[in-house]
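ok so for the tutorial part 2 we go from a plain amino acid sequence to predicted structure tokens. step 1 is just haveing the sequence, like this:
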Amino acid sequence: MKIDALHMREVNMPLAHPFETSFGVTTTRRILLIEIEAAGISAWGECVAGEHPYFSDEMVDTAWHITETELAPRLLNADVEKGSDCPALFEQVRGHRMAKAAIENAVWDLDAQLQSVPLAKLLGGTRDIIPCGVSIGIQPTLVKQLEKVETEVSAGYQRIKLKCKPGWDEKVFEAVRARWPDILLSCDANSAYRLSDADRISTWDRFNLLMIEQPLWYDDFYFHAGLQKKLKTSICLDECIRNRRDAQAALELGSGRIINIKVGRVGGFTEAIAVHDVAQQHGVPVWCGGMLETGIGRAHNIALSSLPNFSLPGDVSASKRYWAEDIIEPEVTVSAKGEIVVPTASGRGFQVKRDRIDSITVRRHTCTPHH
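step 2 — the prediction. this is what the tokens look like for a chain of 371 residues:
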């Protein structure tokens, strides 16, 4: 298929509630959206890079530059048949996986629409519904934190994940466990701890956590292996798994027993499927992490989560938890049982609200093929 045009848009989306992690507080998201046009069809991708290079070395502005100068020209002057053609097309450009994923995922959406199949099916998905967990940011007070947990438990979410950092960990876990002894509970450190904290972290076994997510350095799985040996609780790897080779090396080292797959972090659906397959071969469950996406990125996460080894509740939650008004319709909703129905319409399964996107667009650029 020849791509006729690639449109880049930066939108500014205010969050319904501030979201705090060990990196800081987010109140508005600057997001790069990709729209590609081919054969009279419009397909969409979302770049999950943040405003700052804090979660990864990418940010909205680097993704914009790389997309415009390197990735879009390669796509527009090639003849791609399917989304999995993109990694080879972009191979010369090192890194910039979130920028690559935004384009590649749009190509998968396009291919699914051209074939009139749901994106989930094209990816190899087998689930009709996906179990949902929720990620709760650091709150100003412990009382507020417990109120947030109460809200999400009442909403039916199947797993509660608490963001933590030194000084905001054990007291919180103790309070939550005292009130909800039986809920599926996990924590996410976003690399906030060091080896000197290992003995203290090992005492967290008493909280019966499903997992401790990426406690040590964002780029490490060697030292995580040493920490995992001290813990009964499973370590879940996030930031340090960039591709299938990282997953294989980490699992062979024993660095963790669960992997969080974020499609942007690994560079697109093709690599996300490969990481899923490596984990499955090792008997290790995976789940889908969230990056404060709009409905476009959320639709992609739902499709990915339908793959068979996504057996743990992911962070794919309802639109309304994050946005007063999303940019898709229908908005993503979660049932009282904490489940999302996987769409059966062709492509990503949700319509884009163009008026809404236009109203929050702050810059745009269109790339076309060079003839």
